[in-house]
Amino acid sequence: MTLMITFDILTLLPEFFDSPLKQSVIGRSIESGILCVTLRNIRDYSTDKHRSVDSAPYGGGAGMVMRVEPVAAAIEAARAAAKALGKKATVILLTPQGEQFSHKKAVELSGLEYLVLVCGRYEGFDERIRGYVDLELSIGDYVLAGGEVAALAVIDAVGRLVPGVLGDIESVKHESFSDGALEYPQYTRPENYKGARVPEVLLSGNHALIDRWRSEQSRRRTLVRRPELSVGSDEFSGDDTKKNIK
Ligand code: ADE
User: What pLDDT shows up at residue 65?
Assistant: First the structure.
């Protein structure tokens, strides 16, 4: 049986997703049915005369707040759609106040079958919306104009982990974060670019040596660039390739 994952996106800007979801591996996987995307316009779930989705905050203050009724109704519609397919929905609110999204989280989510991604606009959500979601995710400590870019980041990072989305499963195994460390430096043609040479070991054909060099580089690079990811040893102090960072 092929695994398949649905992303049910709740947004006020469905057109935002038009081009990104047509591109590259994610686009092809949607085309071939490994990934499935549903777009729901939150405004369609507003029942008042003006189909309003936001309102001024109680207590005063700047900006507008997303109203609970249309968002809760859209979430309930998404949960019902999942149920009709015999699937369990996991509802995720994209917010800078959420848990930090990570590779580990992406792996976890890639094992689920129906992800509902709730994207906000305006200054924030009515707090009561939080009662309708299973999880809150942030893609970083900065404030985006809306959750759409964050939802795309989640779709991309989770989608590419679904079996069949990437041609070469090996490339996922060795990439940064897959084993809690940054990936080793990579090189391709030419061997010599304006005097910058590919490390000799990579041309040696000795795969045991290459593997050793790569895991060493991966450890050093992690220690220098992301010490908080390093476990144990602090015996390495140099990242040979740091000078190449642009
Ligand atoms: N919405 C606005 N900013 C965000 C962020 N940093 N992460 C997730 N959703 C957001």
Answer: 97
